[in-house]
Amino acid sequence: MYAAIIALIVILGFSIRIIQQYQTGVVFQLGRYSRTLQPGLNLIIPLIEYTRIIDMRVSTNDIPKQQVITKDNVPVSINGVVYSKVVNAKTAVIEVQNYMYAVSQYAQAALRDVVGGMTLDDLLAERQKIGDEIEAVIQKQAESWGLQVTAIKIQDVDMPEELKKMMSRQASAEREKRATITKAEGDKLAAFNLAEAARTMAQSPGAMQLRTLQTIDGLGPTPSNTVVLAVPVDILEAVRMFTTRLAEKKQE
After folding, report:
1. How far is it, in rounded angstroms, from Cα 250 to Cα 252?
2. Lowest pLDDT segment from 13-22, 159-168, 202-211
3. What confidence score (pLDDT) does residue 16 get?
4. Structure pTM?
5. Can you give the residue ranges of every domain in the chain?
6. Under 8 Å between Cβ of 119 and 70
7. Closest CA to 153 of 132, 173, 183
8. C-alpha distances in angstroms, 197 versus 201, 202, 238?
9. Alpha-carbon torsion 17, 21, 23, 27, what sign?
10. pLDDT tens string 179-208
């Protein structure tokens, strides 16, 4: 009696399969596919049926760093990450031996093909585009394995040190070029404004005197040793004429 109860408990223990919400169970009966278990409590036939539990969550696979030659014959070392998940557990188990390893290897080959068709400048500027192209290449094959590739991200792009120095010098020269152009445009604008100011002062007889007074007022209590003021020509001319007339009156 007790032996039968113990045997029944053992059989039930081997028969019960609890599948988590993020999992799927693939059942094989005597080596052949039988059914797919959904999350929750499930029963199988002990010794006759075998269950393979598959994680349906998004998983990450590294694309190992590898040497690639770009379209313009520049050697670079590049690596990335593949984000994928199982969408058909039966196909993922039956059609490929190790689906995670298969996706990683296929991504490596696709990475070499895509980067090999791009120039170095495009590689450095279009990382997102590279990831999208690799994803498009491997997505069709991944579907036949019961997988979905959700994203591919390029991580590091490593170049030879000499090439890095050359690019640094090029970037520095480009910044100096922009600085020179900006300074020239500023000098041009300043010269234009000065010309406009000179034209305004020439048209207004009192503008120069007003500017002189503003300059004197701006000096304030500055403890300078010497202040040199330029006297306008018209004032000098007026003083000269006054002195001449005063001399003529004395002669009379």
Report:
1. 5
2. 202-211
3. 85
4. 0.60
5. 2-53, 59-164
6. yes
7. 132
8. 6, 9, 25
9. positive
10. 788 888 888 888 877 777 767 666 665 665
Give the homologous superfamily in CATH for domain 59-164. Answer: Band 7 domain (3.30.479.30)
25 burial (CB, 10 Å; 0-12 / 13-18 / 19+) is buried
Query: Beta partners for 242?
Result: none
Write the pLDDT tens digit of every residue in 94-134.
Answer: 988 888 889 888 988 888 888 888 888 888 888 888 888 88
